[in-house]
Amino acid sequence: MVDAHAESASARTLVLDVPGWGGHRAGQHVDLRLTADDGYTAVRAYSIGAPWDPDAPTRVEVTVQRVQGGEVSPYLVDEFAVGQRIEVRGPVGGWFVWAPGAAGGAPVLLLAGGSGVVPLVSMVRERRRRADRTPFRLVYSVRMPGDALFLDELTGPRRRDDGVDTHVVWTRGVPPDDPSGRPPGRLDLRGLARHGWPADLRPLVFVCGPTGFVEAVSRMLLVLGHDASAIRAERFGPST
Ligand SMILES: Cc1cc2nc3c(=O)[nH]c(=O)nc-3n(C[C@H](O)[C@H](O)[C@H](O)COP(=O)(O)OP(=O)(O)OC[C@H]3O[C@@H](n4cnc5c(N)ncnc54)[C@H](O)[C@@H]3O)c2cc1C
Q: Residues 213-224: pLDDT tens digits?
């Protein structure tokens, strides 16, 4: 690991330098393997948060959210230090990926729950890096202000993404300056209909987050008339 920084009180971005890395696509992930002194190993998947940069071709960034009681994530967030080594396998995944021109340039709907925003922000960054103008909408469901990742980049005054509309759904606590006036609560059918693309635009949809979020949102998308073949889903783990 060559660098690291906190994204929130419970999440940290790790910047890895991976010799021989051959590049990756927005949405792909890596498998990270830790090996203890006694030979015990643990492997976990982490999405790559930043698109491949030809000027730094061996750099891979992941953002890890601490899962209470977890075996690997608390170690990566709290203890793993710059200069230490970790085994990286990847890039992994060929379906949950986006690049300019995907699906004939269809508008893109990104639906994130919690740390599920990581691969989706990589798609937003890839669009920016390539100066692409595909219309993007991101609906980001997150518990409370202190938990949100990349919020400044996605919604702050320095945002540089024309054509990317971001809507945040606060599920447990709303920031005091939130303009929507909406009380905290889960993303529902009405919110999805309002902040997502209508199905008749035939958007390409990426859903990512805890299993319960992905399943609930996928069901709502079908109710709203989206084509199942246009929905790409990635489950990060149990519902919280
Ligand atoms: C393709 C893919 C990409 C992923 N990308 C990311 C990423 O970018 N950032 C990130 O932080 N995580 C990501 N994950 C989740 C990650 O792989 C681990 O599952 C997570 O870090 C928990 O590992 P752990 O060893 O700390 O917990 P474990 O020791 O594996 O689990 C401890 C307890 O927490 C529960 N649990 C496990 N995972 C979760 C979860 N995600 N949410 C809530 N409870 C959970 C388990 O059921 C268990 O009870 C991704 C998963 C997949 C499959």
A: 999 999 999 999
Residue 180: pLDDT band by 50, 70, 90 thresholds? confident
Which amino acid makes up residue 88?
Answer: V
Q: Which of 73-82, 171-180, 231-240 has the highest mean pLDDT?
A: 73-82
> SS3 breakdown of the chain: % helix, strand, coil, rounded to 5?
25, 30, 45
From 24, 48, 73, 121, mutation site for ligand 1 pocket: most ligand atoms within 8 A of C-beta: 73
Q: Which atom of ligand 1 is nearest to the CA of 96?
A: 1
Our measurement of the distance from residue 181's CA atom to the centroid of its chain's CA atoms, rounded to an integer in Å, reads: 26
Handedness of CA 189, 194, 195, 196 (dihedral sign): positive
User: Ligand 1: distance of its center to the CA of 73 in Å?
Assistant: 7
Ligand 1 binding residues, C-beta < 6 A: 29, 44-47, 62-65, 67, 69-73, 115, 118, 210, 234, 236-238, 240
Indicate the helix (H) or strand (E) that contains 222.
helix 211-223
Report whether 93 contacts 29 (CB < 8 A). Answer: yes
pLDDT at residue 238, as a whole number? 72
pLDDT-derived band at 181, boundaries 50, 70, 90: confident
Q: Pocket of ligand 1, candidates 44, 66, 89: which has the most ligand atoms within 8 Å of its Cβ, to mutate?
A: 44
